[in-house]
User: Fold this.
Amino acid sequence: MRPLKPNLAIIITTLLIHLTAMSSSAGFRVKPYLLTPEPNAITVVWFSNDSNPGTLTITTANDSRQFTSTPTLADALTYHPLELDQLDKDSPTEAPYKHVIHLSKLTASERISYEVEQGGERYQGTLMASPLPYSPIRFIIFADCETEPESTGKHTPWPQPNGDPNRLYIADQTEGFKQNLRVIQQRNPDFLAFAGDLAQSGGEQRDWDEFWHHLNGKYGNLAGSIPIVAAPGNHDAYGGPKDLGRFSADGNRRADAKFRTYFQTPHDQHHPPQGYHRLDFGPITLISIDSTNGLPDKTDRDTNWHLTARDHAHDFNPGSPQYRWLQAQLADAQQHSQFTFVQFHHVPYSVGPHGFPAGDKGHNHAQDKQSGIPMRILTPLFMQYGVDAVFAGHDEMYEHSIITGGLEQLPKSDDEQTPQTRPHDLHVLDVGIAGDGLRGPYFGPGGRHENFGNNPYQVFLAHNNAPELWDGKRLVSGGKHYGHVEVNVTQTTAGQWQATLTPVYIFPLMNDQGEVTAWERRVYDDEVTLTNATTTSPTKPSPPAQ
Assistant:
């Protein structure tokens, strides 16, 4: 074969480079991920760099089906002009296209292989519709990953009990979140729930890019096979620092539009066009609430004194549309689900920085502009309808509180004049340890500020109840670490339903020089098993989830 002439070789090389670039730019902006699992159905979402349709192929035990997407421009996912000079020179800056395919007529609990082809790129994963009501399930929940590119190399403060309040954590935030997700994926949950603050600044597209790097990108691919259920947090409503808008109307609107674009689909029958929704999954119901603002503004009912925009943040107080919706969902779940769980962002009972009453005088005056205390207005409702556990974040610590002495009002039968009641305890867990802060208490025992009181409902706080044990420079056990809560719901052979809440932390294994060599799943000494008082004949006895 004769060698190519120099000019022709240059032309062909240039053409090949151009075609490779075209193929790359035509592919995925965000790889496929799963939303809104339903009985016999689930939704697959991805984003592409161009407007060409993609194809989704699913393969079951009996057949293979192919679907073609209808792309829509996701103009909410553009970069703010102030972000452009921080992008890589080859990064696309135009808005991507959103692809949504709703799969129905699936077999409950059947794990199905799927493949998405987009612009010459292929992605393979597995999916599963929500299981039958008698099936054992496992889900995992946490909050406050607050992703941002700056997380790499950024070590969060790690206050030392009775010691240095400015000590830094062993690993940076990127590594901490990555290891957390790695352990979660190994546990093979049925879904993963986020109780808010997914991105550091919801209005910065770079921060959302980093989120997807973790969930289905260069750091891992969990979201390609495990559905995500997300509630918004205050950072998800935040436009970004300084000229990016903070909590201004424009900043909040831009942030909210990004959150909705990623997590809302038109196929969820329990998902109103707001930031709150309901998931029925096997024997449980999980209700997600938008806690990012309250009315009236700048009162003791307001969780965010900075946020005044009313078109994208929804009041949760009695009389509001969200409150009425919540009450209806709780009443229905009480009748049809074995356990009812609720997630939202602002933890109502806490010794953290947002455990002070709502106000504008700062922590030294025992007030906070982003307090979680206004969310206590919902506690009577949770007690009335027998909510088993509330999961929240915001204070970025693992803290477990139990509200005792409540009464659950049982559904009234047709022949009853008055409803019956029974004692009820409500578990409230701050699970804000996904990947950002690892705080200690701000007040109470070991707190940083003057003792204004304590959380009388607290039964466990990692800072105080998991003491660190060191051998020289090597941490042997204990301490505050990144982690999550794993929930396993099973039915015994006697027909009784149980939900076990396991607080997991990701422990850094270290050598004698204090260097991290590996990471290990460990459990805080705070595991609790909830039992449904109603015993039913099991349709299909199930062993505990493994």
User: Anything to note?
Assistant: The chain has two domains: 29-125, 131-535.
